[in-house]
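User:
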Amino acid sequence: MKNFAVVFMLVGVIALFSTGTSRATVHTFGFYNITNNDPADAAIGQEQLFVDVSDEFVDQVFFTFRNIGLDSSAITEIYFDDGTLLGIASIFDNPPDVEFVLFASPPDLPGAESIDPPFQTTTGFLAESTPPPPKRGVNPSEQVGILFDLQQGGTYQNVINELYNTTLRIGIHVTNFDSGGSESFVNVPEPATVALLGFSGALLLYKRRNSKR
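Assistant: Predicted structure:
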C-alpha cells in the first residue's frame, strides 16, 4: 500500500509543477516516447521530462525544458514542428553546466517517421547541447529555456491551442540513460495526460527495480 502512495505522490508533484507561482500564464506538457528502444528508458522519460510554455515576454513564447527526476537521462537535442512561431530569439542556459546552441545533429528528430503524421522539424527550429552532449544537456534537476518570437499577429494562446491540437509539436532526443541507449519523445497533446503517463511510468519503474532484488 505504501508503494502505491509513493506513485500517487509523484502524480501530485507533477500537478504542482503545472500550476506555477509566477504572474505569467504557464502551461505544462509532458512527453510520450516514440522510439521505445528500451521500455524502462521510455518510462523514465515519460515520468520526469516536461516543458513549461509561458507568456512572460511580449510577442514571444518561452519554453522551459525540465528534468525533474532522479534517474540518469539528459535532453541533448530539441526540435519544433510547425506552428505560429517565427524563430528562436534566445537560449537561456541554467544552471551553468547546461549549454545549448542553435541547430542540431542530426537535423531531424530520431524516430520522426515512427508517428503519423511524421514529425518534420521546421527549418531553424532546433537546438542541441554543446560537447560533451550528455554533460551539457538537461540532466536531473536541470533545465534550459528557449525563447521564440511569434509571427506577426500570432499570440500565446495560438501556440497553446496548437499544442493541444498538434499543429505544433515539440520533440526531444534523450541520452545518458544507465542502459547506454537513447530515446525520442514528442509532447503530450493533452496536459491532463501527464498524470496518467507519470502514474504508468512510475509503476513500470517500480516493477523494474523490484525485479532486481
